[in-house]
Model the fold of this input.
Amino acid sequence: MLPDGSLAAFGAAPSFVLNVFFALYFLVSIYVYISLSRQIGARTLEPSGSPARAFGLPEAILAAALVVFLLLNISASISHPSVEISTRNLLANLLFTMFVVLFIAAFLRLRGFDLSSLAGFFKIGFVRTLGIGIILLLAAYPLISLASTLTQRFFGSGSSKQNIVELFSGSQTIEQRIMIIVFAVAIAPVVEEFLFRFFLYGVIKRYLGGFLGITVNALLFAAAHAHFPSFVPLFVLGSCFTIAYEWSGSILVAMTMHSLFNSVTLVALAFPELVSQ
Done:
């Protein structure tokens, strides 16, 4: 029979191992994104033989109009924080956002842009895109977790949740949950990455440079969700998405990361007992 001190030491060992593991995990996460950022910076300094066509003044005007619309929408959400989202509102927002995406895509096509080449749709194969998305999302989680912890420590955890989270948690029918899952996993990542990473980041980077492009784009991405407790984690998440897109040259990598992140979040909401364990 082991002495009490041995039992205590035996119980403390797994906790120590876990702490060391998470510390190493966090350091690897920082290294990955610093390394990607350095590679992006070094790439911009290298002369390019045939530079791709960049967005111009018409795209900048359209992007400015989109930013103004986002800011007005954010202001309205802050002014009426008690308004709850419903299935009908979610569907209406989805249809409107898809219309905006199609309008921007048609506008760029009329301007002579090759969207497939510009967004890197076929630059990386499916398996490699999925693998990169998984690895970079795993590397992003410690940074997101740190941002969330710091936000809770300095500003409090708060009791509110994002509207879409509250709608999913309070949904009463399987049809409603399926609609939210399809929206969060398949539609929102495509729409948001096209708007924020491909279009807005492309325009901001053209006029402000890569670093400010990533920063401003992540600020807009976080603010667009109109949920203060999630602002800093969403800023970090948006930065990781943009770095992944810029480094890989394919918007599909950012879309994959976004879809996987939303999938994990929905699993956590649907099975909270697994997360707590």
